[in-house]
Design goal:
Elements: E1 4-7, E2 10-11, H1 20-24, E3 27-35, E4 38-39, H2 42-55, H3 63-73, E5 80-87, E6 104-111, E7 119-122, H4 144-156, E8 162-164, E9 170-173, E10 177-182, E11 187-190, H5 200-208, E12 213-215, E13 225-232, E14 236-243, E15 246-247, H6 251-263
Parallel strand pairs: 7-14, 11-12
Antiparallel strand pairs: 1-2, 1-6, 3-4, 3-5, 5-6, 8-9, 10-11, 10-13, 13-14, 14-15
Helix pairs in contact: 2-5
Length: 266
């Protein structure tokens, strides 16, 4: 349960039953890391939040409003996982949005940071991502593929799994973006034009890796790479030592380097 929650700036824990985020997944969200009351890499998260609101034609809350509410949740120097959700607000029955919606913002703080695995050895998840996704890259509230994939991980007693699209192209893990390094030390990341979520941590690394290559990567191509790194906002960069039957020999050193880069872009 969240340590603290604000709904439209007020302490609350209940939503109206007609909220479109609940009814139709009509909204977006972002997950952030808070350290001692301070949000890590807030400019990157805010940029993705604005992008995602625009993709759904949602009116984005003013930055100063969000920052004021983040300060409230950060009082006392808490560390934990922050979630920002923006829905289209309340609406009637039917898919069509109201003519003049009043978006609803929900900020919640979950105290304490979850443990980060030392490394990930992952199978390829049998749950695939639909393509082409009209909202590829956007972190919208429709996450049923990830819900089913996380259930798969729980049943297999594993920390994470790689997710591919319906054509067998590597996209992400159930909760992280992926990057690969080849023998020439070139960095690659899956092209997310058809599926997946563009994470803020992926964008932070992109800013430090100007030659990062977005590419189509299928599982047969994994042997081209010497290292793989998985990343998200809560846990940073984690070494990937294995995907399916393919092992990566140099992932730990490159994950450490990725975390150094992230430390330069807070």
């Amino acid at each position: 349960m969240a340590e603290a929650m604000l709904i439209d700036g007020r302490a609350a824990r209940e939503l109206p039953a007609d909220d479109r985020g609940l009814a139709y997944g009509d909204g977006i969200f972002r997950t952030l890391r808070m350290e001692s009351g301070r949000v890590v890499a807030w400019p990157f998260h805010h940029a993705r939040l604005m992008h995602d609101c625009a993709a759904l034609e949602l009116e984005a809350p003013p930055r100063e409003t969000l920052e004021a509410e983040l300060r409230i949740l950060g009082q006392g120097g808490l560390s934990g996982v922050l979630k920002i959700t923006i829905t289209r607000g309340s609406g009637g029955r039917g898919y069509a949005p109201p003519g003049r919606p009043t978006p609803r913002r929900i900020l919640s703080l979950h105290a304490g940071l979850p443990p980060v695995p030392d490394a990930l050895a992952m199978p390829v998840c049998p749950i695939t991502l639909a393509t082409p996704a009209v909202l590829a890259g956007v972190k919208h509230l429709n996450r049923l593929e990830q819900v089913l994939a996380r259930r798969y991980c729980e049943r297999q007693d594993i920390a994470d799994a790689v997710m591919c699209d319906a054509h067998g192209q590597v996209v992400c893990t159930t909760m992280r973006n992926l990057m690969f390094i080849d023998r020439a030390q070139r960095w690659y990341t899956p092209d997310l034009a058809r599926a997946g979520v563009i994470g803020a941590t992926r964008e932070r690394l992109r800013a430090r890796l100007p030659d990062l290559i977005e590419a189509t990567i299928d599982t047969a191509r994994l042997s081209d790479f010497r290292a793989a790194v998985a990343c998200n906002s809560v846990g940073g960069a984690v070494a990937v030592t294995q995907i399916g039957r393919h092992e990566f020999a140099d992932s730990r050193q490159w994950a450490a380097y990725a975390n150094e880069l992230l430390g330069q872009s807070v």
